[in-house]
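Working notes for the structural subgroup meeting. M.R. asked for a predicted model of this chain before we commit to crystallization trials. I am recording the input and output together here so anyone reviewing the notebook later can reproduce the run.

Input as submitted:
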Amino acid sequence: MVEVLRSGAVQGLGLDAQPDAWEEKLGSDYVDDVRKGRMRRDYGLVELSFFKEGENWQCFEVSLQVHRLAADISDIVPSSLIEEYGELESRVRFSDLQVNVTAEGLQVAQISDRGRHLYSRFSVMESGVIVHVLEADSGDSLRRGDIWSVSLARDFTARAAPIS
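Returned structure, recorded in token form:
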């Protein structure tokens, strides 16, 4: 996950990658939901959102749905990620990730949101990534301070701006 926060990419792929590049890197075990010129490609842990521009799909968001790791589902992580990083933990503590990321010289800043009670949001300006962190225990396995999701989006600047 540190690599994603550092680079703003998953295995070298970011917002400029086409669906076929994602399939080549992450495999063909995904579900596509296509509606009205939009497509959501769901690999389990990795979720991609595209819109149709002419003949091409443009990726506008890459998300790591970290909370899904807590589910007892064996195929939630694409095999190429397991090959590169090994088995992933079922919970990822934000404090642990933050220590590793700041040790690499990246700035992690909290986005001050009013009225949001489920998650705190943190931005990494260098890579354009936003991290959603649980503010309360969720279900049996996720706890306050666990990462819910990590996202890279074309509208990062708007998403990272504090809500007034």
